[in-house]
Amino acid sequence: MAADPGAAALAQAVERLRAGGLVAMPTETVYGLAADARNPAAVRRIFAAKGRPADHPLIVHLPSVEAMDDWAASVPEAARLLAAAFWPGPLTLVLPKAASVDPVVTGGQATVGLRMPAHPVAQALLAAFGGALAAPSANRFGRISPTRAEHVRAEFPGEEVLVLDGGPSDVGLESTIVDLSGAEPRLLRPGAIPASAIEDLIGPLQRPGDDEGPRASGRLAAHYAPGKPLELVAAEDVERHPGVADSTVAWLSCGPLPSGATGIALSADPAGYAQGLYAALRELDAGPAQRILVIRPPAGEAWVAIQDRLGRAAVGSAANGQSP
Question: What is the rounded CA–CA span in Å between residue 271 and residue 274?
Answer without folding.
Answer: 5
